[in-house]
Design goal:
Distance between the termini: 16 Å
Order of helices and strands: HEEEEHEHHHHHHEEH
Largest sheet: 5 strands, mixed
Helix content: 40-55%
CATH topology: Glutaredoxin
Oligomer: single chain
CATH class: Alpha Beta
Shape: globular
Structural class: alpha+beta
CATH superfamily: Glutaredoxin
């Protein structure tokens, strides 16, 4: 049995310890050694990192909230900021969520003015509130200055953001994403989807094995 098969079997055993996780090789829309259609406002870390991670997420999804507030923060601190992962946020607003596309528009607009983190954090932390009221605008306005929210509203009303959201959604369909969060991990010419909320400790084992692979 060659090294790659041994590694794949080991990774599968690690992640399948959680019932919500699926790990497998997958074909997806790639361009050379990287991925296509990367919005620089929604991408973090070094483009030369050994791992590229695309996270398909829905701001109204409770599981995405859990992933963002838990696993994502630790990934940013331990892998993205250290040059090990190039992370790309992909919008994947599920049709069953009435306000998720609106939230995606506001988050996209905020990213364009350099306010990605405070707005994404506000949307996830206050998810239950705006999910019931539909007041995405008020949730975002609470963490921005008057001039910043004016710029965000202008971008949202401009009508150009749906095209980039739809492009992300189409990319997700290309990977056969059907639930959120789904993380598509690229390493050394292989692509792995990780479906559902995965604890940082479990994901760390997987990532460290990928990084150590020769």
């Amino acid at each position: 049995m060659n090294r790659r098969r041994i590694l794949a079997g080991s990774l599968f055993a690690v992640l399948c310890s959680l019932s919500c996780v699926l790990l497998a090789k997958a074909a997806g829309p790639q361009s050379g050694g990287g991925v296509s259609d990367v919005d620089p406002h929604k991408a973090f870390g070094s483009k030369t990192a050994p791992i590229i991670m695309e996270v398909f997420s829905d701001f109204q999804c409770p599981a995405c909230k859990s992933f963002y507030l838990g696993t994502n923060r630790q990934l940013m601190d331990n892998y993205v900021s250290t040059g090990k992962i190039f992370m790309i946020h992909r919008d994947f607003p599920l049709p069953l969520h009435a306000h998720s596309r609106v939230a995606a528009r506001y988050a996209r607009a905020a990213a364009q003015i350099g306010k990605t983190e405070p707005v994404e954090q506000a949307l996830f932390q206050n998810q239950e509130k705006w999910e019931q009221t539909g007041d995405v605008d008020g949730t975002v306005a609470a963490v921005l200055s008057a001039s910043e929210i004016a710029k965000v509203r202008a971008l949202v009303k401009g009508g150009t953001l749906d095209a980039v959201i739809d492009k992300d959604y189409a990319l997700g369909q290309g990977y056969r994403v059907n639930q959120t969060p789904t993380s598509i991990i690229h390493s050394k010419g292989q692509t792995y989807p990780v479906v559902g909320v995965v604890s940082f400790d479990i994901l760390k084992q997987f990532l460290d094995q990928l990084i150590s692979q020769k």
